[in-house]
Amino acid sequence: MKRLLDCSASDFLKMSGQDLRQSIVASEGRVIISEVIGSFSPLYPAVTNAEMAAAFGADMVLLNFFDVFNPEMQGLEAESPEEIVIKLKQMIGRPVGLNLEPVDLSAKKLEELQQLPEGRIATKASLEKAKELGFDFVCLTGNPKTGVSNTEITRAIEKARAAFGPDGLIIAGKMHGAGVAGETGSSMMTAETLNSFVEAGADIILIPSPGTVPGFTVEKTGKLVDMVHEKGALAILTTGTSQEGADEATIKQIALNSKMAGADLYHIGDAGMHGIAIPQNIMSYSIVVRGQRHTFVRMAGSVLR
Q1: Which of 85, 116, 179, 265 has the fewest CB atoms within 10 Å of its CB?
Q2: In degrees to the nearest 10, what's the CA dihedral of 95, 55, 287, 212?
Q3: Is 305 within a domain?
């Protein structure tokens, strides 16, 4: 198995979710995931936000606000909506994943919540549809004001494992409170919650990067990452609190702190600009965690390789 750092588009086409997991492990903490929104008008209409993220160094692309029952990607035309994900993967030559949200209707609200379409909620039907559309991995998390709880994430992991099977790649966790009382700040992720995610079948546990959520210091985050590794899972540290739109110095500090905390993967969110991080911040993040060589090779690599 090649380390993901050395993989090209043709390598990704052959990989199952678990192959991708092993390739991430082999990269020793040097994998960048960029989250984008395809249902918004792209930053520049000539290309999709996914293409922009890939061009600035993302190894993997995560789609947010994507309705599996009404597939759409602004800036991309396909023969039918059912072919959008497959065509996008061909265009960018990277693994493409999907956010689905485990909404908890019984959770105590911290604020007024939004109502989501069925195609964005982590149900049995939506997870099965995500696999059918060709997504390489699924991320079970919550956007702001959606009412996603840790309890419901645990239930959704089990549904995702059933839908994607043993070879599927499942990421799970919260980047912020998602509008649920009692799950904000340092109480968002505990050892008990972490254990429940791993035991339910998650491959990669999502934890806020140090400095992105109040109380998540390098020390605290590092301890959580150590627990994840002891359980045999991987850790993705996330920047999903609109700091993807911060200055490059802040991004570089978050990146280096995340590496010191032991991240296997690094996520940068979609709220820096309109549905994508500031592109230069994707590149800056990448250069901090793996240098110019790996960053520029990823940026320059042709999808024909």
Answers
A1: 116
A2: -70
A3: no
Please tell me the chain's helix, strand, coil percentages from 3-state DSSP, rounded to the nearest 5.
45, 15, 45
Q: What are phi and psi of 263, to 5 degrees?
A: -60, 140
8 A C-beta contact, residue 136 and residue 97: yes
Q: How confident is the model at residue 259 (pLDDT cuts 50, 70, 90)?
A: very high
User: How many domains does one find in the chain?
Assistant: 1
| Domain membership flag for residue 210 | yes
Give the CATH number for residue 289.
3.20.20.60
Residue with tokens 């395809």: 38
Flag whether the pTM goes above 0.85.
yes
Q: Please classify residue 77 by burial: count the beta carbons closer than 10 Å to its beta carbon, then call 0-12 exposed, 13-18 middle and 19+ buried.
A: exposed
Name the band, by pLDDT with cuts 50, 70 and 90, for residue 108.
confident
Range of the domain at 54: 4-300
